[in-house]
Amino acid sequence: MSETSQKIEALIFASSKPISEKEIQKRLDLNEDISEVMSNLEEAYQHRGINLKKISRGWIFLTNTEVSDIFHEKREVQKRLSKQAIETLAIIVYHQPITKAEIESIRGVNIGQGIFDQLMEFGWIAPGGRKEVPGRPILWETTDDFLLHFGLGTLDNLPGIEEMKSSGLLNDNFASMNIQELTDDLEKDEAFVDEENNEDENLDDFTQSQLTQDNDS
Which residues contact 33 (CB under 8 A, 6 or more apart)? Predict the structure, then answer.
């Protein structure tokens, strides 16, 4: 392994968040392209206990999913994600960017603002602009934290729509969704499904600030 590879490996290992190739070059004062070095490192860690993964535009070491079970500890914590929130998240994942009205059309029921507040608290969704239609509703999309939590490099790593249909996770008109697979992933970690009857209808500070900025402009 070259000295450059060793330095890059050490830098990524010491980072708690994904670090981009541009940042690596800056931190190590490298002028040459490091894409080939990164590919070689990724391949070298492919079958080890930890893998080098590219999450969005950054690199990070993650536990190999084949051995991750040894770290799971089943415990209930106060932070819960409701079933309604999981269903909403699943729709956003596969239809983003998407408005609240479009999500409600797919689910067939109205959605309280509390659902979006839950998902934003987890850091998995965020406003992604506004749709250029009357009223300019907020468009919702997933975040890099969502990719990191589920070990996805990009959204392209998600099962395709046709694959989802054939496996029974989506029907032809997307009117109903079987989100058991996503629910299972959440239950393996710190999020537990909990029916929530009282939803907060008020906009949280983050969403309110977005609306205020848009109105001011």
Answer: none
3-state DSSP percent of the chain in helix, strand and coil, to 5: 45, 15, 40
Query: Does residue 152 contact residue 58 with C-beta atoms inside 8 Å?
Result: no
Q: Could you give the dihedral angle defined by the CA atoms of residues 126, 196, 80 and 171, in that order, rounded to the nearest 10 degrees?
A: -60
Domain 80-216, CATH: 1.10.10.10
Tens digits of residue pLDDT in 60-104: 998 888 887 777 666 555 566 778 888 898 899 988 999 999 999
Q: How far apart are CA 207 and CA 112, in angstroms?
A: 13
E strands, 44-124, in order = 50-55, 58-63, 80-81, 98-99
Domain 3-69 coded CATH 3.40.50.20:
no
Q: Whole-angstrom Cα distance, residue 7 to residue 11?
A: 6
* CATH fold match for the domains 3-69 and 80-216: yes
